[in-house]
Amino acid sequence: TWTTAAFVEQSVREIRAKVGDKRVLLALSGGVDSSTLAFLLHKAIGDQLTCMFIDQGFMRKYEPERLVKLFHEQFHIPVEYVNARDRFLQAIAGVTDPEEKRRRIGHEFIRVFEEESKRLGPFDYLAQGTLYPDVIESADTNVDPKTGERVAVKIKSHHNVGGLPKDLRFKLIEPLRKLFKDEVRKVGRSIGLPEEIVQRHPFPGPGLAIRILGEVTDERLDILRDADLIVRQEINRHEMYSELWQAFAVLLPIRSVGVMGDQRTYAYPIVLRFVKSEDGMTADWARVPYDLLELISNRIVNEVPGVNRVVYDITSKPPGTIEWE
Ligand code: XMP
Question: Which annotated residues bind ATP (predicted)?
Fold first, then answer.
């Protein structure tokens, strides 16, 4: 029978046998797959592993710091933190079209990945958190006809653009390739990953950049991060997190009139998007208690400067999508 302990033990043996004395690069994303992967590889090959975390500046408030701290303090795994916030913001400055935003973020990711892997390398292998369902699709890999080994031609980064340049085609190591998501969660839990990573809701690769409609600016990112943090705090406090597929805030690039005290305000609205779903392909807007919505609305309007209105999205998918861009 399958146990997490047996899986960890066997993976460690297989990783050691395959890697030998070579070097491995892993791009951390903050999710359960790449975190579990980092743990297994570090256990197997120690400092032959380099974990790289590219901070695009579009993650939720405190998430980059928490991730790096968790790896350093709890797992004693060093992380190469790459602060690329300014570059990514520059790359999408003035861009309002959703697909163009995604495309530019994806391309910037490849560029940063390429530069940093050259700076830290050379590496023989790229570790990827490929799961069993991805192996079947297998769109991001080639098989070397001579050795039969899978070779990365793309980085699995949730950015569906941009192949790797020819001189950067790593051999792949994919210790999670026989697992389904629920098995990865079990392994993640057994090695001590916190629930906030194990159970983490899906989070798009371009992150908050596609939850700010239209142009992304520093000011708008700050506002959205603060509103989003309040959503997360209240969803957790009310123990709703595991009931929902996703629960997040969206910032609209328009202003409406409001009143606070005896002052007229003219500020951004925040949309709350809470959905239930099995697989993300279809989704229902979540019927959460009005009291919870009121609490979140009051907190956002009172605590986040620049926001004077909160609305709730009651569109299911289809016809709506889960994200707004
Ligand atoms: P939509 O908005 O298409 O989203 O209903 C379905 C699921 O996919 C996630 N999503 C993304 N994930 N990169 C990702 O890694 C993306 O560009 C992206 N866009 C949407 C979304 O959060 C939802 O879970």
Answer: 29-35
Same domain, 247 and 304: yes
**Block residue for tokens 């070579």:** 22
**Protein residue whose Cα sits closest to atom 4 of ligand 1:** 322
pTM, 2 dp: 0.91
Report the C-alpha gap between 71 and 116 in whole angstroms: 19
- Domain end residue (candidates: 170, 197, 224): 197
User: For residue 287, what are the domain limits?
Assistant: 211-312
Residue 204 alpha carbon to ligand 1 centre in Å: 5
Hey, which of 56, 323, 325 would you mutate to test ligand 1's pocket, going by the most ligand atoms within 8 Å of its Cβ?
323
Cβ–Cβ contacts within 10 Å for residue 7, how many? 20
- pLDDT, tens digit, 9 for 90 and up, residues 68-105: 999 999 999 999 999 999 999 999 999 999 999 999 99
Is 157 known to sit in a ligand binding site? no
ipTM: 0.98
